[in-house]
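Subject: for your reference before the review

Hello V.,

The reviewers asked for a structural picture of the protein, and I figured it would be easier to keep everything in one thread rather than splitting it across files. Below is the amino acid sequence we used in the manuscript, unchanged from the supplementary table.
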Amino acid sequence: MTRILSLASALLMTATVAACSDRDEDVVQSPSPGAAPVVLPDPQADTAATSAALAFGMTRDQLEDADIVSHANVDLGDVETLVLDASGALTHLVVELKRPGEVKVLVPVADVAPIDRNGEKDLVTSLTPGQLQALPPWTPPNR
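And here is what came back from the structure prediction:
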């Protein structure tokens, strides 16, 4: 009985770690202008994401979990991935739009600003839903 409980506990812990490990491509970098992005190794991704989040006055988790909202407080999408240029500067956010299907677009960081919504940190944009949908689609890097 003890072996079964130990095995069940180990399986549950493994499943929990796998479910919480959603940082598969939270930070990508274009090695040169126009080049396909590549997923950064964890230590480099952690440093870059933390620096990018601090620029918005947020933690990494807050930035990666942020909603993109309009000035009218309409939820337009969710931040999925941070995109860096070759120098390591944050240039775009991959945002999954709030619409049927999994439409993900590249939103320039210049088009968003931090906002505090009742203690929750999110990002606000002046872009309309139509303008967001017209942005370049996100193509994830090959693994």
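For the response letter, the relevant points are probably these. The helical segments are 2-20, 42-55, 60-64, 129-133. Confidence is low (pLDDT under 50) at residues 1-23.

Happy to draft the paragraph if you're swamped.

O.
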